[in-house]
Design a protein that fits this description.
Shape: globular
Oligomer: single chain
Distance between the termini: 34 Å
Number of strands: 10
Structural class: alpha/beta
Order of helices and strands: EEEHEEHEHHHEHEHEEHH
Radius of gyration: 18 Å
Largest sheet: 6 strands, mixed
Helix content: 25-40%
Length: about 240
């Protein structure tokens, strides 16, 4: 079963920039996919379409079988609870503890306190931060902040995790620790789609690589590396 499908997707912005050109690919449930390419290749636009921050100019995007272009606005919160999001800059609320950052969305939804405590505890356990639950973002290292962000993405139990440059601000050792967490999440059954410029990680993991250049898919290979999958322009980025 495909959890993500792009069907002849084009994205043109009002200023005339054509960010995506005839994108077609599927992501089966349980897959781990690296999305690579130079800056401006279209990776961020593709991610924004996945979470319906943008609509395609042409074509169709499906997530969990839902066609996002036609999805009513009132259904968006439900969609976004099914898609965990992890960003390069963590996006933690500075005045909330690690526990409170992870619990925040559940509290907004009015979940019972006992349910919140259980889910947040499980998510922090997955990322190895149960013992740091009461610390604030300013008291945590960059890697620890990213772990909190991953726990927040997991707390709803999403089947799809979208990570946009999750190791971009981290040193190599910490970046690899984050990748170990993402691999465990994938091994647990979640689908992972990760946009990255980190060649060493892509080369080491040998997972599926979808390479973009100038808004087009230029290669889609299983068990690949960054260098094999990216065009010459991407390797200079």
């Amino acid at each position: 079963m495909d959890i993500v499908s792009f069907r002849h997707v084009w994205k043109r912005y009002p200023n005339g920039t054509e960010a995506l050109r005839d994108i077609t690919f599927d992501v089966p449930e349980g897959d781990f996919v690296f999305l690579v390419g130079p800056s401006g290749a279209g990776k961020s636009s593709l991610v924004r379409l996945l979470i319906r921050e943008e609509r395609p100019t042409r074509g169709e995007v499906y997530v969990h079988g839902l066609e996002l272009g036609e999805l009513p606005r009132h259904r968006l919160p439900h969609l976004r609870r099914q898609v965990g999001l992890v960003f390069q800059d963590y996006k933690l609320l500075p005045r909330l503890s690690a526990y409170e950052n992870v619990a925040f969305a559940l509290r907004v939804l009015g979940e019972p306190r006992r349910t919140i405590a259980r889910r947040v505890g499980e998510a922090l356990e997955v990322v190895g931060l149960a013992h740091e639950r009461d610390r604030y973002p300013c008291e945590l290292s960059g890697g620890e902040q990213q772990r909190v962000a991953i726990a927040r993405a997991l707390v709803h139990g999403p089947r799809l995790l979208v990570a946009d440059e999750p190791t971009g601000n981290l040193d190599p050792g910490t970046a690899w620790e984050i990748m170990q967490i993402l691999m465990r999440i994938n091994a647990g059954g979640a689908t992972v789609l990760m946009a990255t410029h980190n060649r060493d990680i892509v080369d080491s993991m040998r997972r599926r690589v979808v390479a973009l250049d100038a808004g087009r898919i230029v290669r889609d290979c299983p068990h690949s590396t960054y260098h094999e999958a990216a065009p010459a322009s991407a390797l200079r980025a």
